[in-house]
Amino acid sequence: MSIRDELQSTIDTLVQPGKGLLAADESGGTIAKRFKTIGVESTEENRRAWRSLLLSTAGLGEFVSGVILYEETLGQCADDGTPLPELAARHGIVPGIKVDAGKIALAHAPGDEVTEGLDGLAKRLDGYKKQGARFAKWRAVYNVSDMLPSRLAIETNAASLARYAAICQEAGIVPIVEPEVLMDGGHSIERCAEVTEAVLHEVFDALHRHAVTLEHMLLKPSMVVAGKEHARQAPAAEIAAQTVCVLGRTVPAAVAGIFFLSGGQTPEEATANLDAINRTGRRPWPLSFSYGRALQEPPLKAWKGQAANLGAAQQALIKRARLNGAASIGRYDA
Ligand code: 13P
Description:
- The chain is built from twelve helices and ten strands.
- The protein is α/β, with parallel strands linked by helices.
- The protein is globular and about 50 Å long.
- 48% of the residues are buried.
- Pathway: Carbohydrate degradation; glycolysis; D-glyceraldehyde 3-phosphate and glycerone phosphate from D-glucose: step 4/4.
């Protein structure tokens, strides 16, 4: 198969009406934080048990077309010895991989951050592909205040996202481009809209300069919302209107799909907001979910690290997946 056909076939499997993505790619530090909320220690065995539980959920493939994994998970196996990427594939779920190496402070730009991980990326992708990964994810984060993010942060992160995406496409791996405008802080929804528009504008400019084929990539943006500490939290209809307005101004119609992150919204909010977005009328791209916390929080609470709770946890996961599947086509009934 040519690289082009390979990319197209992955896109066709990932982008399906009524389906979204499960982000289960928490890094070591992040998964430890999530486990701490249920009093579970982050050992390799517990991480394996948790991620096998997620991927062995019967019927998950009905609402989830792809799963983003962390490097460690690619090499782990279910209890019966099936490699976890293969377990996902058996459920009709395409395995993907987080390839960025996390964020650090951006030099000479206090308060801004930049994502690392480009060195040796092409070689790493070869290895991930052999382990079954068909798509990748790279996350850039933008802190918001009256002054942040700086032009330098917007330009630097856009350049890295675009280089990453180009390297992925050359390797036959579909890139998910994730610029996350953080919800932390007291900024208004209008400020979030302004920052998101500037960020996405720069990201697509960089993608163009790096000759990234838009038909063979997915965008994973944050929704346009007020900062968590802002006094006024907008209702779903307003979040939807602001979000599609910004996306309409900045995202070319050629992009294969937009799969939102949940970014700290509650599971219920993330579903209601996605549904409201899909009720705003026809858009050039499918608008779906690529949720981490909004899909995993309820099953994590049900699991509590105990094998006896596996069934209850899987039921909680399938419930959120089903509701988000409905929201991705504007048919969620709260
Ligand atoms: P959240 O949905 O929890 O924001 O996670 C999505 C993700 O992949 C963040 O990088």
